[in-house]
Structure formats: C-alpha cells, structure tokens
Request: fold
Amino acid sequence: MRARELSEPFPTVGLDSGAMQAAQLLAGQRLPGLIVCDEAGHPYTVLPGSQVLRFLIPRYVQDDPRLARVFGETASDEMWGRLTTSTVREVLPARRDLDELPIVDGDATTIEVAAVMARMHSPVVAVVSQGEVLGAITVSRLLQQIVPEAPSAR
Reply:
C-alpha cells in the first residue's frame, strides 16, 4: 500500500498560528502532532504534542521530574498561560534541529513511512505530492495497517 492510500485528511497550522490554538487542536482532536506549514502552505515540519510540553515545562524540571512537585496550581496555570502569548514558531525547536522533515512522497511504501517515523521519532508523517500536503499518516494508522490482527480470545 502506498502513502497516498494510507493518508487521511489532517489539520495543519502555520508558523505564526497561535500556540494555544495548536494545543487546543491537539487536545480536542486527540492528535499526536500537527503538520506545520510555511507561509507558502508547504510543509515545514511536524509539531508533536511532546514538543508543546517541552516548551511549557522548565528545563530543570524536565531534567529532574521530582521538582514538579514544588509547583502549585497557580504556577501550573502560569506555565499553561505561556501558550496564549506564543506562536507555533516559538514552540518549535531551533531550526538547526529540523534538518530533515517527517515528510514522505505519496508513492512511499509502508516500510518507507515506518522508517521515517522511527528515524525521526515522529508520530505523524506528512504525505506530499509536488510540494502540496495530501494528508498525513499517524503512527496508529500505520500500525493498524502493518500489524496483523490479534486472534480472537476464547
């Protein structure tokens, strides 16, 4: 099966979209990530939900999660509030970390899609044809296609 056959319509956001809007889209549709497009509408990268968390949680807490216990609800609310004043561009890692994009051509095989996801630790791969986004493949959709169904329990 080819990527274009596996791909499904998928929401995209722009680099200058609000970070809160992106987070609400992730949460509201239970998405593992979003496709981020540049000003011309071409895929720029994938914003995984985990990157939104990395943006919000102070580095010292990421390094030592036990420190999270010292944060009260007020501090937590302030952290989440950072999303309201930030853009998707600000949430993304530095561009030097985005040399390769989680993108495949519409003719890519399931193994090619799986290899990109695995190599890039991306839960979403954008499927493109001639620079235009056709849709996306999520890791759950890919696994649904390649992992055999479990036999019925008796």
In short: The chain has one domain: 3-146. The domain at 3-146 is CATH 3.10.580.10 (CBS-domain).
